[in-house]
Design brief:
It is a single chain. α3 runs parallel beside α4 (about 120-135). The chain has helices at about 10-20, 75, 80-100, 120-135, 155-170, 180-195, and strands spanning about 1-5, 30, 45, 65, 105-110, 140-145, 150, 180, 200-205. It is globular. β1, α1 and β2 form a beta-alpha-beta unit. The longest helix is centred in the middle third of the chain and has 21 residues, at about 80-100. It has about 210 residues and is of the alpha/beta class. Bound molecules: NADP nicotinamide-adenine-dinucleotide phosphate (NAP). NADP nicotinamide-adenine-dinucleotide phosphate (NAP) binds near residues 7, 34 and 108.
């Protein structure tokens, strides 16, 4: 199968990319990104600006999209910029891929995603899930991690403290509160994309613990 991956330079996306490139079921990966990725025989990584995505690129046609693209409020600076990156970019990618005939979309969403949430982050994730479902992919999966565990280029103070506490308490916590390791999330994303089971599906943080 041919995979279209956005967010390939991030923590989860890097793991998805490595798994996909090593998987014999995946014949090729297209990973549009704003930064260059290391070359690989199975990889096409066009440099793009997500504010001006190329509408006619042939690589929008794939067997499935995996989206691990997103930012933080700290990096975004304003709610408006956060929403553009975490909601509009993944939705723009979905529209272009669907229009080109790509039948499946797998989103790295978040636990608590809910369009009616009073928490802005959860509301944006929920609105994205809702708006993706309205597009009509044959197969749509929302993978909803809790706190993601893994090595980051840039440390995140708040997340670091939460991760330390959860690591200590992990064994006694209910599965849904445990850290979700990035490789585990990546494997769930890739399997969902390859299987592309018809309908709308949710993978919960408890299933990723
Ligand atoms: N952190 C958590 O504990 C947690 C929990 C639940 C869900 N999530 C969600 O899971 C998803 C993946 O998380 P992660 O930790 O893997 O994220 P990450 O390491 O920060 O990676 C984010 C990816 O999005 C890309 N991106 C961000 N801003 C962009 C922009 N303006 N234009 C183009 N690309 C942009 C990054 O590209 P560059 O490398 O070029 O910046 C990178 O590829 C996110 O949507 C996040 O909200 C996170």
């Amino acid at each position: 199968m041919k995979l279209l991956l956005v967010g390939a330079t991030g923590l989860v996306g890097r793991h998805v990319l490595a798994l996909a490139l090593a998987d014999a079921r995946v014949s090729g990966v297209v990973a549009p990104a704003r930064r260059a990725l290391p070359a690989h025989a199975k990889l096409d990584a066009p440099l793009v600006d997500f504010d001006q995505l190329p509408q006619e690129a042939p690589w929008w046609r794939a067997d499935a999209v995996i989206c691990t693209l997103g930012t933080t409020m700290k990096v975004a600076g304003t709610r408006q910029v956060f929403r553009r990156i975490d909601h509009d970019y993944p939705l723009d990618v979905a529209r272009l891929a669907l229009a080109a005939g790509t039948p499946a979309y797998v989103l790295n969403s978040a636990a608590g995603a809910n369009p009616s949430s009073r928490i802005f982050y959860n509301r944006v994730k929920g609105e994205l899930e809702r708006d993706l479902a309205a597009l009509g992919f044959a197969s749509l999966t929302h993978v909803r991690p809790g706190l993601i565990g893994g090595e980051r280029d840039a440390a995140r103070a708040g997340e670091g403290a939460a991760l330390r506490v959860l690591r200590v308490l992990g064994p006694v916590l209910p599965a849904r509160w445990r850290i979700n390791p990035a490789p585990r999330i990546a494997a769930a994303l890739l399997e969902s994309a390859i299987r592309a089971v018809p309908g709308v599906h949710v993978v919960t943080s408890a299933q990723l613990a």
